[in-house]
Amino acid sequence: MVAITAPSSIEHIPLVRCPKGANAGPQAVIPCIDLSAPGAAAAVADACRTLGFFKATNHGVPAGLADALESSAMAFFALPHQEKLDMSGPARPLGYGSKSIGSNGDVGWLEYLLLSAGAASSGGAALPAALRAAVEAYTGAVRGVGCRILLRGDYSSPARWVPVPPDPDSFFVNVGDSLQVLTNGRFRSVKHRVLAPEGEESRLSVIYFGGPAASQRIAPLEQVMREGEQSLYREFTWGEYKKAAYKTRLGDNRLGPYELQHAAANDEAATKK
Question: Is 170 helix (H, G, I), strand (E, B) or coil?
Fold first, then answer.
């Protein structure tokens, strides 16, 4: 969960609920995929190859789960800074944190609550009961949606920034770095940014990250590689990636250290020294 606001005191963030998407601007460039439709698998794969981003409808997650989580999250972020910190502990990386962003053109204060879904060491044992219950119910439901999308995909970035109108009845899904590696670049990990609603100073976002165990090794899948095709990435573990990604803040290319061309250049430079 992330709360973002224009530069101001972190002690007072007047969060607002996400508005309906009507009259929110153009949306034709974002694929809208009905997950219950017969052609959903092919549509998901096409969106992942071309844009790395799509809107999922008829996903099966009751609207009440998202509403409950949003309400309890807003109540948590409205608490005094120290009280939030006492409840969850500092983000290392799990827990509550806050920071000023701006190193990559972003502006504002960011405060967040990072939890590990379903893990005993989630960093949220002292969180309000309503928030804990809402997190558990919501993550269980969206985990099912994520697995459904992955299992239906046929595994054989937008060139510019485009507006994505909010839609409280849908999920916005984007390809992550690990999926780009697993498909050897066929699926595209897309860069995205969050804006506060027009006329408001802040907003709340709830993000679900799907990933394997920390020890899981990630490399292009043999099933997607054509005969004679070379891997674009060196193998790494999910834990290694997360540790490096946390240090990049909002860096543009978190896969740079794992690209074989990048690694070869580094090896050559090291040899010349």
Answer: coil
Cα–Cα distances in angstroms (integers) from residue 256 to residues 215, 231, 240, 265, 267, in the given order: 20, 14, 13, 11, 14
Q: Which domain covers residue 99, as residue numbers?
A: 2-6+28-213
pTM: predicted TM-score of the whole model, two decimal places:
0.74
Q: Is 159 exposed, middle or buried (0-12, 13-18, 19+ CB in 10 A)?
A: exposed
102-141 pLDDT per residue, tens: 666 566 677 888 887 764 444 556 788 899 899 889 988 9
Which CATH number do you get for residue 139? 2.60.120.330
How far apart, in whole angstroms, are the C-alpha atoms of residue 1 and residue 71?
Answer: 12
Residue 229 lies in a domain: no
Q: How many residues does the chain have?
A: 273
273 part of a folded domain: no
Cα(22)–Cα(76) distance, rounded to whole angstroms?
28
Condensed to tens digits (0 to 9), the pLDDT of residues 188-223 reads 888 777 777 777 767 788 888 888 888 999 999 999
Residue ranges with strand state E in the chain? 2-5, 32-34, 53-57, 95-101, 108-114, 171-174, 202-205, 217-218, 236-237
End-to-end CA distance of the chain: 45
